[in-house]
Write a structure and sequence with these properties.
This protein has about 500 residues and is an alpha/beta fold. About 20% of the residues lie in helices and about 25% in strands.
């Protein structure tokens, strides 16, 4: 994975998009008509994200309609058992490493969406493959447009007598080409993530990233997660370069995958970070290559780019076999069922361990984690990031509530809920588990606001002395790496 996201220049983008294109997120209820009038391109209506030229951004700013504006960047890719009988299967050492050869993969079920460069649909692996859905126009002519074909083959190359077999050969494979200019493009990637989410819960594979944090890309990932999908991302290949934080891998609620070698150790290039959830094979991975770039149609490739799709395909396999799971449960199963290969328990190099498909198929069903994502006010308030927001735990006429949820220091660091405090009454909030509890005023900047109450021994009590009821926030943070808690809210006169 390259260390820096590249700023898209006018020269690179001139043929397909306005020079100095910017991605703009409009304020709720502002600027949509003006954006259409000036010729902007609407990318994700649910998140109010548009592609706008420089002059148009100035006009939208002048109208007070801009919430976020940033140059559109190019996204570097992360570089470098029904018996499978295809000729190159003996070279797929990863099959035994993750147990893919010890279980029969199912027929079509939960889809996997690859947001990457285009798919070579003329390749023998894909020309007649059932359940291969091209979500937009696919191109594979440029030198950097081989990545999507490679990644897709690791997931879903069929058992068809040609070349290799993917981890889930009968998967419903959806492909979004996010390289309209010959290299992965930020706006196109955001569109692809959103479109995959709109089509219903599934697994979304992102084998790209860089060091620059991007709120619009994060919004798209959170939109997908709120919509019920599981987002899987490559951890990055900067393990020998200091392991700088990379995105989208470092965002909460992203299942982040590092790479291992044939000896079962973490690869030296694999990025080390507290956000790594698990690892999967990532060296000498046989992949399909666009025919225009490799006459044989195959080569071997290294990188977390290919570890991530092994996990993505395996997750779709597990989800198809266990369709009653939601994405929060699947997230926990995939990482907690991994085989520990490093220091006992979690570590920053291998996360919870090495992907193991038989373990994941048999792992106990964990409790669902409600209302995710819910780290920030924008994620829970209606008409903010998500039109519906989240349901308040208590509200007029419903004075009590109980739920079970969990927190994780890196993947789910905060749980934030709205609660109703009736006029002249006492709201009691009790939490069991290793959590920190606070009651906060309802504010868009609540994480920096002075708390109304700091919980002690798992109890926070707030007396509303006002003459009217009000909403406040219940905030929980973990006191350990990963915790499950029970939360109960009650109201009384005293």
């Amino acid at each position: 994975m390259a260390r820096h996201l590249l700023i898209a220049t006018a020269v690179l983008l001139a043929s397909a998009t306005p020079a100095r294109a910017e991605l703009v997120q409009l304020r709720p209820g502002h600027g949509a008509e003006l954006a259409r009038h000036i010729g902007a391109t609407e990318l994700v209506p649910e998140l109010r994200i548009w592609r706008v030229d420089e002059a148009g951004v100035a006009r939208l700013r002048g109208a007070g309609a801009v919430a976020v504006a940033e140059p559109e960047r190019l996204l570097p890719k992360a570089s470098v058992a029904t018996q499978a009988t295809d000729p190159l299967v003996p070279t797929e050492w990863w099959r035994g490493a993750i147990g893919a050869d010890r279980a029969d993969s199912p027929g079509p079920g939960k889809p996997v969406t690859v947001v990457d460069s285009g798919l070579d649909i003329t390749h023998p692996e894909f020309a007649n493959r059932p359940n291969t859905i091209l979500m937009n126009k696919q191109t594979t002519d440029d030198a950097d447009e081989d990545h999507g074909t490679e990644v897709s083959s690791v997931i879903g190359a069929p058992n068809n007598g040609f070349g290799i077999v993917g981890v889930y050969p009968d998967a419903i494979l959806r492909v979004w080409d996010a390289s309209p200019f010959g290299i992965l493009n930020e706006g196109a990637a955001i569109q692809g993530i959103a479109e995959a989410a709109r089509q219903g819960p599934g697994v979304i594979n992102l084998s790209f990233g860089g060091e620059d944090q991007d709120p619009l890309l994060e919004d798209a990932v959170m939109f997908a997660y709120r919509s019920g999908s599981l987002v899987v991302a490559a951890a990055g290949n900067e393990g020998m370069e200091g392991s700088p934080k990379g995105y989208p891998a470092a965002y909460p609620h992203v299942l982040t995958v590092g790479a291992t070698t044939e000896t079962g150790r973490v690869a030296s290039f694999s990025t080390v970070a507290p956000t790594v959830d698990l690892v999967a094979p990532g060296v000498r991975i046989p992949v399909a290559e666009p025919l225009a770039q490799e006459a044989s149609g195959y080569l071997e490739a290294p990188g977390t780019s290919f570890s991530a799709p092994l996990v993505a395909g395996a997750a779709a396999w597990v989800w198809t076999d266990r369709p009653y799971l939601d994405n929060t449960q699947l997230f926990e199963i995939m990482r907690r069922s991994a085989v520990d290969i490093g220091p006992r328990g979690f570590d920053n190099a291998s996360g919870w361990g090495l992907l193991n498909i038989p373990n994941a198929l048999a792992y106990r069903t964990p409790p669902s984690d409600p209302q995710e994502p819910n780290e920030h006010p924008a994620e829970i308030e209606p008409h903010a990031l998500f039109p519906a927001g989240t349901q308040p735990l208590t509200q007029p006429g419903h004075p009590g509530a109980f739920l079970v949820a969990h927190l994780d220091r890196n993947e789910d660091p905060v749980d934030l809920y709205r609660a109703w405090a009736p006029a002249g009454m006492v709201l009691r909030v009790r939490a069991s588990g290793a959590v920190k509890l606070r009651l906060l005023p309802r504010s868009s900047k609540t994480l920096k606001a002075r708390p109304l109450v700091v919980g002690k021994h798992g109890l926070a009590t707030f007396r509303n002395t006002a003459t009217h009821g009000l909403y406040l926030y219940v905030e929980l943070q973990p006191s350990a790496r990963s915790v499950e808690y029970r939360l109960r809210l009650t109201t009384a006169r005293r």
